[in-house]
């Protein structure tokens, strides 16, 4: 029998020591010449049943140490497919052990899976027969040593932090929640709509938006151009006009003299060229350094989109156009807020999940939000339990219990007015809040967390908020003081979801836009949805990073997004 290591790669994963085809086999990755470590160590038996198989694995060395006076080495290898490592044993006769044992080294190795000696925590280990590839590391310069690192430290080494146990676990949890999001809405008949990143509408009416413009770049280009090639003078313009006049007179003379066709054609071409040159000269004479102005204000008519444009704060308004045509839709993408906040709960770039449901009211909205949150909790418990165990061990010992509680408990539903009364009762009983409690305030995080963590000890949906603290598109209730808005509050983070029944009545929403001090012109298309075939509809937005904070128990939102953007930082 030929040496199995020399067999074609597609046979490697299924080859066993004794060619027993009835033995369990581990599948190779479909698009990579290796077996994923997860498919070995995450089996119910920890991989023990795979003993005797020859496989190729690849990953990065978490820890490595030489043993037996340098005769062999133990490597803990992880490829990111799961939190667990695969123990790899390499003899000095196979490879240079000094290169392999450094933390951060990438390795691709082939060998035999074996059961380790009894009494060890590993259920399976890999005895290496061939080292295929090595990506070496200089331990003196490697920025991610194997000592315990703070999450703050890792934010300054953003390109290496996915190699850590915490950030890779967060990445898998984030991936699972994204998968769960699409699964939930697809299974419930929603269409996934890609809403624009660049918008001319301010959904929240807050004005804290990043502006998209080419005026600054264009002004810098013009300034450099004018220094290098000064604009034409009045004399230059007059000279160009004179040439046009002369060329025009020449054409007229040739025609009156009944000259030949060829001569006239040549003269007309020269006239055309002279006219084109005059246009260029006149255009260049208008170039001025600085941002273009009109009536003392910036002239956005000369900007790329011929109007002011921004990075979106929400895809809601745009996705409503599809809800008012194909009924049930959702968008899931990045949103942006130019808010100078350095708190642990704010990012300048963050992701939002925003469904919209036609022919539905506030109660339907609350039902959908509750079902969606519960679905995600179930999904993590079913699909990501090993990563959740890591989080429970290292960050929040209650995170798994919290997921189970939310997944299985009916959400409490109370009106905003009832919520304020409960908070006021708590104050009377001695509870101290930093923010005063009175009807009309926007509930602070401390109020929300008191309701969900202390008063009810489960998720709470607060609905019917004061009109004055909510956005213009929320439906005004019959009392004319409140709107059909709702927030889902959960332990650990407070508000997780904000939603509402949308105002479908043309006259009322027009009045609300004006009340908020917003211009009508950018929202004419939004008003059209109410002018023509208006429909009752509702929706909500879930802050995706807040869901990850809730699930993992991690404290800072900058640690649950791959590339955090916040004031002063936009690395990579």
What does this entry show, briefly?
The protein is of the alpha+beta class and 572 residues long. The chain has helices at 9-12, 38-41, 97-100, 151-155, 165-187, 215-228, 234-256, 261-285, 316-326, 362-383, 385-394, 399-408, 416-428, 445-455, 506-515, 524-531, 544-552, and strands spanning 54-67, 72-78, 86-91, 106-114, 125-135, 191-192, 198-199, 211-212, 293-294, 297-298, 309-311, 328-336, 349-358, 412-415, 460-466, 482-490, 494-501, 537-543.
Largest sheet: 8 strands, mixed
Strand order of the largest sheet: 6-12-13-18-17-16-15-14
Strand content: 15-25%
Q: Which bin fits the share of residues in helices? A: 25-40%
Note the quaternary state here. single chain
Low-confidence stretches: 1-22
Number of helices: 17
Chain-averaged pLDDT? 91
The N- and C-terminal alpha carbons lie at a distance of 52 Å
Structural class: alpha+beta
Number of strands: 18
Radius of gyration: 33 Å
Coarse morphology: flat
Sequence-ordered SSE layout with sheet pairings:
Blueprint: H1 9-12, H2 38-41, E1 54-67, E2 72-78, E3 86-91, H3 97-100, E4 106-114, E5 125-135, H4 151-155, H5 165-187, E6 191-192, E7 198-199, E8 211-212, H6 215-228, H7 234-256, H8 261-285, E9 293-294, E10 297-298, E11 309-311, H9 316-326, E12 328-336, E13 349-358, H10 362-383, H11 385-394, H12 399-408, E14 412-415, H13 416-428, H14 445-455, E15 460-466, E16 482-490, E17 494-501, H15 506-515, H16 524-531, E18 537-543, H17 544-552
């Amino acid at each position: 029998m030929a040496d199995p290591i020399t067999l074609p790669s597609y046979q490697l994963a299924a080859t066993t020591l004794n060619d027993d085809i009835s033995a369990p086999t581990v599948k190779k990755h479909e698009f990579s010449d290796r077996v994923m470590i997860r498919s070995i160590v995450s089996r119910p038996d920890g991989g023990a049943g795979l003993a005797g198989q020859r496989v190729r694995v690849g990953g990065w060395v978490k820890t490595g140490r030489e043993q037996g006076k340098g005769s062999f080495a133990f490597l803990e290898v992880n490829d990111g497919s799961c939190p667990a490592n695969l123990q790899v044993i390499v003899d000095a006769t196979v490879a240079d052990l000094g290169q392999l044992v450094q933390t951060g080294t990438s390795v691709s190795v082939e060998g035999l899976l074996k059961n380790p000696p009894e009494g060890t925590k590993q259920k399976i280990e890999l005895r290496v027969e061939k080292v295929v590839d090595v990506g070496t590391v200089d331990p003196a310069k490697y920025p991610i040593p194997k000592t315990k690192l703070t999450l703050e430290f890792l934010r300054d080494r953003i390109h290496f932090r996915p190699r850590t146990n915490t950030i890779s676990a967060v990445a898998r949890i984030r991936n699972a929640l994204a998968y769960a999001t699409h699964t939930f809405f697809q299974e419930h008949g929603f269409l996934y709509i890609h809403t624009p990143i660049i918008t001319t509408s301010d959904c929240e009416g807050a004005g804290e938006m990043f502006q998209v413009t080419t005026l600054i770049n264009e002004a810098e280009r013009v300034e450099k151009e004018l220094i290098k090639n000064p604009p034409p003078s009045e004399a230059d313009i007059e000279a160009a006009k004179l040439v046009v006049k002369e060329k025009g007179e020449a054409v007229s003379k040739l025609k009156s003299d009944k000259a030949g066709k060829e001569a006239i054609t040549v003269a007309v071409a020269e006239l055309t060229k002279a006219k084109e040159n005059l246009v260029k000269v006149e255009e260049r004479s208008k170039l001025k350094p600085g941002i273009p102005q009109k009536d003392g204000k910036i002239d956005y008519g000369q900007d790329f989109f011929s109007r002011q444009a921004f990075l979106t704060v929400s895809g809601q308004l745009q996705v409503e156009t599809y809800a008012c045509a194909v009924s049930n839709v959702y968008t899931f993408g990045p949103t942006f807020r130019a808010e100078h906040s350095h708190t642990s709960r704010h990012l300048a770039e963050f992701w939002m999940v925003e469904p919209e449901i036609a022919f539905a009211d506030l109660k339907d909205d609350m039902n959908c939000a509750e079902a969606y949150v519960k679905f995600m909790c179930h999904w993590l418990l079913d699909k990501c339990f090993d990563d959740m165990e890591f989080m429970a061990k290292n960050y929040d010992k209650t995170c798994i219990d919290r997921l189970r509680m939310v997944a299985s408990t009916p959400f409490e539903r109370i009106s905003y007015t009832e919520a304020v009364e409960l908070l006021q009762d708590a104050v009377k009983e001695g509870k101290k809040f930093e923010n005063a409690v009175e009807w009309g305030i926007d509930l602070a995080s401390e109020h929300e967390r008191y309701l969900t963590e202390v008063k009810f000890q489960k998720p709470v949906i607060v609905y019917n908020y004061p009109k004055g603290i909510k956005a213009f598109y929320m439906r005004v209730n019959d009392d004319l003081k409140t709107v059909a808005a709702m927030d889902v509050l959960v332990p650990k983070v407070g508000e997780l979801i904000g939603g509402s029944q949308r105002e479908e009545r043309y006259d009322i929403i027009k009045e609300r836009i004006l009340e908020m001090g917003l211009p009508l012109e950018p929202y004419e298309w939004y008003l059209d949805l109410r002018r023509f075939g208006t429909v009752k509809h509702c929706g909500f937005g879930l802050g995706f990073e807040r869901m990850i904070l809730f699930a993992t128990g991690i404290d800072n939102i900058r640690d649950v997004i791959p590339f955090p953007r916040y004031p002063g930082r936009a690395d990579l």
